[in-house]
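Following up on my earlier thread - several people asked me to post the actual chain instead of describing it. Fair enough. Here it is, all 310 residues.
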Amino acid sequence: MASCIQLLLLNQYTANLLFLDSPAVVGFSYSNKTLDFQGDNSTALDSFTFLQNWFKRFPQYKSSEFYIAGESYAVPLFSHVYGHYVPQLAEDIFDENKKSTKENYINLKGFIIGNALMDEETDQIGMIDYAWGHALISDALYKAVKVKCNFSTPNLTDECRNEMLKYFQLYQLIDMYSLNSPICTVDPPFNVPNQYSDVNNAWKDWRFSLLPVLKNVIDGGIRVWIYSNGICISFFLSCDLKIIEDWTPWNNHKEVGGWTIRYEGLSSITVREAGHHASSDLCSSTFSSMPTRSCHPLLFSQLMTLHSKI
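Reply from S.P.:
Thanks for posting it. Predicted structure:
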């Protein structure tokens, strides 16, 4: 409602939100097929099938612009498995739309990800640089990782694994996902150490890098918006995208709230003092000050609404 004039005004950036518990058996979702538990490809396919059926049931929303939102997702380094739900689902929709009839077409316009895990090589390098830059690991360990680890391949050497195990000891001492937050200690699941290996062995499909996926959808006109605390953005350098608006600070109540850079088809924004889960680490006033010129206003309004639900 307008503050000075007592009448209701239409918000042109309103959005209908659809929350999906994915993969199967997460939240309220369930499945009786073991094939649903084997990896990211099956997760993307299940989500795509769900969306197709949902739009068939509610055809009045078919013409609406459709955006996907998600945050992060990765599992431990040494399992060699990495999840990338949102981009893979977006690519499935994008590719299927090329051969789809009007009845099955999904009006996908873009997607948004927080602290996206997109490329294993740049993510691991950035993670180590971040830890060293915040004085969380010694110079000796930092140099050892740089010398012994080649993150361009999933097959790490034993020498590299040994050095990385020293790094991962930090996770027992401090919350690496939010350095300013107190650590939340929990017992191992079921107090059975081999539960991790059982899950890892059951996981079948994954992609080492999603940069080809990113390039595919961007070239096809799908808009991408990524926000983060600054750790997970180094992969942009590998995308060879044209810069539309270079590195620029944005303000939150006269203080620098972060930085933004806009590429052709992709926009990135960093949030100062945020942890890995930026949308839950900072208050809504910070997000309300974010620059919206880097993304479609409707997409930004979805981020704001999602944040208010946390």
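The first helix runs from residue 40 to 57. That should answer part of your original question.
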